[in-house]
Amino acid sequence: MFLKKIINSIADAGKDLLTKAFTGQRNLSTLLELSEDLISYKGVASGIAIAREISETYKTLSVEDKKKFFQEIDKKLKPNMDLIEQKSIEFAKNKNKETLKELASLAEGNRQEFIRRMNMAPNGTAFLVSMREDLLKIVLEDSTLKDLDEDFKHLFRSWFNPGFLKLEKITWDTKAAILERIIKYEKVHKIKNMDDLKRRLEEDRRFFAYFHPVLNDEPLIFVQVAFTQGLATSIQDIIKPKTDDKLKADTATFYSISNCQQGLTSVTLGNFFN
Amino acid sequence: MFLKKIINSIADAGKDLLTKAFTGQRNLSTLLELSEDLISYKGVASGIAIAREISETYKTLSVEDKKKFFQEIDKKLKPNMDLIEQKSIEFAKNKNKETLKELASLAEGNRQEFIRRMNMAPNGTAFLVSMREDLLKIVLEDSTLKDLDEDFKHLFRSWFNPGFLKLEKITWDTKAAILERIIKYEKVHKIKNMDDLKRRLEEDRRFFAYFHPVLNDEPLIFVQVAFTQGLATSIQDIIKPKTDDKLKADTATFYSISNCQQGLTSVTLGNFFN
Amino acid sequence: MFLKKIINSIADAGKDLLTKAFTGQRNLSTLLELSEDLISYKGVASGIAIAREISETYKTLSVEDKKKFFQEIDKKLKPNMDLIEQKSIEFAKNKNKETLKELASLAEGNRQEFIRRMNMAPNGTAFLVSMREDLLKIVLEDSTLKDLDEDFKHLFRSWFNPGFLKLEKITWDTKAAILERIIKYEKVHKIKNMDDLKRRLEEDRRFFAYFHPVLNDEPLIFVQVAFTQGLATSIQDIIKPKTDDKLKADTATFYSISNCQQGLTSVTLGNFFN
Amino acid sequence: MFLKKIINSIADAGKDLLTKAFTGQRNLSTLLELSEDLISYKGVASGIAIAREISETYKTLSVEDKKKFFQEIDKKLKPNMDLIEQKSIEFAKNKNKETLKELASLAEGNRQEFIRRMNMAPNGTAFLVSMREDLLKIVLEDSTLKDLDEDFKHLFRSWFNPGFLKLEKITWDTKAAILERIIKYEKVHKIKNMDDLKRRLEEDRRFFAYFHPVLNDEPLIFVQVAFTQGLATSIQDIIKPKTDDKLKADTATFYSISNCQQGLTSVTLGNFFN
């Protein structure tokens, strides 16, 4: 695509302008420098270049380095208690809009802005979801990172707002790549293989999944429904092969609801059915 | 769609639960009550019902009532200076995370949350873009509403982040409904009619538009490019009918860039080419 | 596409094997030689190469040369009266299946097989439809070519069998390239421009077209329907702008049916509505 | 679809006009009467109704009755030797175009026209392909039906002409319903299950299938290609799991070509690769 190429060449140009000398080795320290650049950049083109660089470098880190990266970045971007204290005192003396705006901005810190800017990277949203997946594991060991995770969650709630999701019926006409992911994601009433899944797509069953428009072919949450005659007495009843062709169902059972993305844990959409 | 129906019926049920007695007449006061409900609701289902009700009622208002609506809602949802003052003093005495969180939340106020929740309405994003279009006109008369607009802008920057937009080539194979909108939106180098537009889609021209996945068929911004031999000396040169079949272009001119949506004024994407 | 390339390279190889020396100039005599080759070739690959060569050469001919081409080819491919006479006498003496098969084959001649093989050229079907369009004009001057046209018609009836056509609703969401063709093809109740067409696509109108899967974006026939209150008294009544928003239609009028392709004149599909 | 409904209601009306009294039981004799009607009908609408009725009735027949049906229909529709003899003598006396046309028509008989008209039934082409599948088995027992099969083959060659087929790349993004059929159709180098198939779709493999536009999701023929370093020494080499990530292939092996449809046996497309 012509314009795509232009944008990429601008991004490439932006990248060349980066003062960091990449000596072939990407590592934690360059990553942190880039992160500071991202927060202070001007102009979308160089922003895209930096965000791309960060996402590519991050992926090469060890688990240990990822932990250090989150800790360092949190330290740099979190709200500055001393500055907020000063501004609070100023505001208490002088309640006006400008001071309020500054206070609100200080109180938020820079973590959200960092995440928002990272979203400009190619496949930025998918990258951020997997980044939070990492973070959630690390939070278990280092609870000081909980606030960073709160900021991820805050933005994801905005981006994965029900208004942005698309509900799609999953059938045997769905592409195999999506069906394979569903098999992998179903943790409660496990699906052994494609044949096992096929049974759950038959005419007396319904299978729906929510998708986000920029996370191609990645189901976010899915819901399984069985039409039966009377209430099924057990899950085995529901997932056993179809026996009766003449379906006279009078009952719809929602028998399984799964959140697929660890990186979207407790983001609103899952609460829909609670 | 089966699940769609379920969701709608839940939403309808939620609606029935609303304590407001609609006496057939929707008006400003019910709208304000609904807006308070939206901020305080629990559960997605009733949230969707209320947001839908608000969007439908809002559309029936006169310009004068819209103005009053914005003023009232701003009054109710804007940051509360007195509470922030108290919390500021508290924070200055006791710098801890909990107090900070409360301070940040008070400093933001409830306007953003209101807008985020409105996005759950069917076609909520399109509705909010047109709502801001109204607001921008009203701000010219009542500058106190500028902060409300800032909150719209803040959220739109997050939602219309370059990472969420799709770039598409506009050609003579594009659906007429989109081409018609482009004719309407091009304000600088006006397009008289379909034939006039067709010339801009020929092989020595390129036409690209950005779309947001939930604003179907609504171009957000478009860019027009001409391939010419040497620099064109005037815009007339560029938009005149093609004369020479054997194209030996050596120059690409970006001759027109248009922001289509008034409701997205000064949201980042337009700055890309600045 | 990988396999496409292989096929093309096979076709190219086939082309190189052609014994005709193309001295840069394609003309009637090479075309006739190619046509004989096409009838006698073995193997699909060289067949595709020859058919492609014929279609490209044919397009460069003058009207006069096209006429000569049809006359020459008809002479070569038409049933041979003398051979049929011999075979008839043989059959009358000896009524068996083998003789019958030979007789039937001789009685059909080679014109249909030629047309069938031409269909292997890239976009062969579209080419053949436009070839018949030429032929139909030439038949008016030279009625001896009527039988050749009968063979075209026979095959087209088989290929444009109602079972192969797809009915599609034409709306304002249809691509402009198709709408433009419809404006051009409507000869009875002329459509002035896109705006004029748009009126015929509004909610109190219906517009359907038949397409053949290998003739991309080429409507074959279209049907226009008006929903009105009571029978319209004139065509002006039907094509005038919509006046009444609250549609209480009780009458559906099929007010225009058009065959789009001259090259498909009197092929069955048009008779559907007779 | 509005027009679809009209067509169906016309077809239904046509059906009501059928003089056959269906006493709830469809059988061989009504089928034969319908077949005669199909040959003699006027007008597309009643033709569609009759063809639909025939296809539905045929499917209910036992193998034995199908055999009788083919025998009876062949008897009625095959070329009439006595009439051809008369016409042959007439032609030998009087070699003119009219007599030739009549002779050719008699020599062809009515079987092809019957098949052509059957194609108007809903999913007529798919029905005819499965009908020929039945016929091919029956021909093994009754070789007098070979000529009927020749007529099927003649028409299928015209309809499944390479010019009408679409080549598509099969990948893990192909719908599961198609992949399942491919597993079933691969008879030479069997595919155990979806995982086994997935290996053949990886980046060092290519998989292509031909489709006909009216046989939805039904592969007609498929071709499998392996990219390897040097020639593989055995098929096991080719279908074993991928071991080496850094692919330096220098050889493309077409290791499997399958015709999927029994009903299309020896129709040209399969010969492409011969």
Walk me through the topology:
The structure is a homotetramer of 274-residue chains.
Chain A (H helix, E strand, L loop, with lengths): L1 H16 L10 H13 L3 H16 L3 H15 L3 H13 L3 H12 L2 H8 L5 H18 L4 H14 L6 E4 L6 H10 L8 H6 L5 E7 L7 E10 L6 H5 L11 E9 L15
Antiparallel strand pairs in A: 1-2, 2-3, 3-4
Helix pairs in contact in A: 1-3, 2-3, 2-4, 5-6, 7-9
Describe the model:
- Chain A has a four-stranded antiparallel sheet with strand order 1-2-3-4, covered by helices on one side.
- In chain A, 53% of the residues lie in helices and 11% in strands.
- The longest helix of chain A has 18 residues.
- The first copy, chain A, is an alpha+beta fold and 274 residues long.
- In chain A, strand 2 and strand 3 form a beta hairpin.
- Chain A has two domains: 158 residues, Butyryl-CoA Dehydrogenase, subunit A, domain 3; 111 residues, Aminopeptidase (3-Layer(aba) Sandwich), CATH 3.40.630.150.
- The first copy, chain A, is elongated and about 75 Å long.
- The C terminus of chain A is likely disordered.
- Chain A is built from twelve helices and four strands, in the order αααααααααβααββαβ.
- At the C-D interface, helix 1, helix 3, helix 5, helix 6 and helix 9 of C face helix 1, helix 3, helix 5, helix 6 and helix 9 of D.
Q: What can be said about this structure in brief?
A:
Four copies of one chain form a homotetramer. With 274 residues, chain A is an alpha+beta fold.
